[in-house]
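Hey, I was hoping to borrow your eyes for a little while. I've been puzzling over a protein and I'd love to understand its fold better. The fold is given in discrete form, as structure tokens running alongside the sequence. I'd be grateful if you could look everything over and explain what you see. No rush at all, and the record is pasted right below.
>
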Amino acid sequence: MRLQKYIALCGYASRRAAEELIFNGSVSVNGKIVRDIVMVDDSDEVRVNGKLLKTETKKLYFVFNKPNMVITSMSDKFGRKTVADFFNNIEERVYPVGRLDYDSSGLLFMTNDGDFANYLMHPKNEVTKTYAVSAKGNITDEIKEMLENGVDIGGYITGKAEINNIVNYSDGKCSAEISIKEGKNRQVRKMFEAVGIKVYALQRISVGAVQLGDLKKGRYRSLTQKELRDLGYERQF
């Protein structure tokens, strides 16, 4: 949101008065004085005359089924569709938690709670992410063991994984579900490529105990308090 709106939501001043504070050099964002209107959110540190501001706006948590060919970003300089385009009817600015590849679909959290986003993305919390994979090639017992024990995806050895619901088809294709606790760029695709299997469709179907279920592509729903607790993150709405 715009900086003057943020200041107003914090109850410090009206938007018009907030603009004057900004232009007078009384406002800092992340330690730097700003004299122009900029965009901020709850992950930014905003101070007026040295006083740290905090909004009292309602925290929002959404499960979004990201379609293929949608950028996990709030904007795109090439004019491609972004996740922000699906949340135009939400007054508060929400943003994606982590990333999901342009050519992948599935479960993506959207929120305005920076603490929630940081909690899910921090490696120490080891939140499990499960993907449904469709690929060219067959998953043998040997390949399954390799994927589960870790493979080299270009200078990085992946951690432990779980492969379930393997189906090898007679036409040389396969499907499976893979669960990982890491989030390297295009990790699942690179893992399968490392064992000679080419992924052509990838969908994230769960994060922790939260399931995508039958949520249609391009639609979203609110997370429940139980789901937040199941993720290990509890906060009053």
